[in-house]
Structures are given as C-alpha cells and as structure tokens.
Design a protein that fits this description.
206 residues, 75% helix
Length: 206
C-alpha cells in the first residue's frame, strides 16, 4: 500500500478510537462520524485507480479529525470552542462554524482534483466556479440532512443540529462553507497543481 495511506490510517485510528470511547452522546457520535467511516474505506478502495494527491490526503485527514472530535464532545461542547468563547466573549461555541468552514475548504480541493483529473475542465475558468457551486450545494444538502434527521428523531438530533438558539444557524453554516471553498481555491490552487503532478504521471505505482 502507498506509504502515504499507511500514515493516513495509522495516525487516524488512535484519534477515532479515542473519539469512540465515552462520547457525550453515542447517537450524535454516529451522525458526526459517518462521513469518516464511509469516506476512508472509499479512499482505500480506489487507491490504485485514483490515488489522491498528498495535499488532499493531508486535508482529508484534518477534516476527519475535526469530525470525530466533534462527534466525541458534540459540536456545541468541544473544549476548543468553549475556550474561544471565553477568550473572545462570544455568546456561543463556534466550533461548528469551524466545521462548516472546513466543509467548504476541504471538499473544494477534492472537487477540484476530480475536475482537473477526470473532466475537460482542466485549465478552464469555469472549474473554480463549478467547484464553489458543488461545495455550496453539498453544504445545502447537509443542512437538509440535518433537518430530515431532526424531523425523524426529534430531540435525539438536538446535539447533531448544534443550533444553540441561533435562528440563522443554517444560513451562516452555508456562508462559512462558501467562504471556505473560495479561500481554498484562492490560497491552494498552485500548491494543489504541484501536489497532483506525481499521481497524474502515467504509470504512477502504489
């Protein structure tokens, strides 16, 4: 197996194991961690057919950690958010906003990699616009998923929603994803191109 993936999995397993042990709410843990439990096997299954760039793997690892940490505490109770709440005098824990920012930032690089490597849009001015659109659509889909979960499970989904009394939580979540996606493209496009160079070479071997 690609040594990069060995490190990816080896460094992620302890974090997931810690997150699994004694979470604040087991139901919320499953809801928050499902993307990790599904996404990592997909990455491994396609490691030969579609090896990911190193930059994308690093970002995905960080995203996985953010998700399982949120799953362990629930987003409204993550200590980092509580510390920031005290430091800056905020009225709520904003760890979930970090989560939604990353929900735009990391999928932007993933979407860009898919477009560059599998579509005719490489080098097109439309690729950035479409990447942001995909990320915003995914964010909206996630908000619909949260709503559907709340309708189906009632109060059991309260920690998953993490609204903390904010009536504009859904809108600001999507805004953070939009900002994250836009910044990812502005900051990392050139670095991402260099990172994709090796895996796009003909005959790249695992």
């Amino acid at each position: 197996m690609d040594r990069r993936l060995v490190w990816f999995v080896a460094l992620l397993i302890p974090v997931v194991a810690w997150s699994w042990i004694g979470p604040h709410d087991r139901f919320t843990w499953w809801l928050e961690s499902i993307p990790v439990l599904v996404g990592v096997p997909v990455i491994l299954a396609f490691r030969h057919r579609f090896p990911l760039s190193t930059l994308l793997l690093v970002l995905l690892w960080l995203h996985c950690v953010l998700l399982v940490v949120g799953g362990h505490y629930t987003y409204a109770r993550v200590p980092l958010g509580e510390w920031a709440k005290e430091w800056f005098g905020w009225s709520r824990n904003h760890y979930d906003k970090l989560g939604h920012f990353v929900q735009g930032f990391v999928p932007a690089i993933l979407t860009r990699e898919l477009l560059v490597r599998t579509s005719p849009l490489r080098g097109s001015r439309w690729s950035g616009f479409l990447t942001v659109c995909v990320c915003l659509a995914f964010s909206a889909f996630y908000e619909l998923l949260e709503w559907f979960t709340a309708v189906m499970t009632g109060e059991a989904a309260e920690d998953f929603l993490g609204m903390q009394g904010d009536p504009w939580d859904t809108q600001t979540d999507m805004l953070m994803a939009l900002v994250g996606a836009s910044l990812a493209l502005a900051m990392l496009a050139r670095l991402h191109d260099r990172s994709m160079t090796n895996v796009m070479k003909p005959g790249y071997a695992q």
